[in-house]
Amino acid sequence: MSNQKFYLIDGSGLCYRAFYALPHFTTSQGQPTGAVLGFTNILGKILRDKPDYIACCFDVSRETFRQKKYKEYKSQRSAMPDELKQQMALIKEVASAYNIAIAELEGYEADDLLASLAKKAREKSFEVFIVSSDKDMLQLVDEKIK
To answer: Model-level pTM?
Structure first.
């Protein structure tokens, strides 16, 4: 039985959280960087736990398989703020610089990917840690998924 730790990060959720939690920092050229800083700080805390494996999941687009089944799904949700959108490439660069796998798939949300990866990792006897503020993730929690 494996005792290896597999961390799964809700990258999209974490970016939103960092974006709204920190002031609107910018570079001298005006590039917004607050979400990048917040994401990097949280990532540093996660890495201190020395995970054996780590992946960061991101939303790719607003249109998912759920919209095809139910047109009203998240229809009231506003689009990603431009200042956050401008930081997404940098955030993914940070994750890549730490050699963190990035998972994203057209038509699926980050939480769909998190759930699929968590279940597969549990089947391989990993101890899975989901880093997300999405309360829907709580339905995955069991003795192997935290």
So the answer is: 0.86
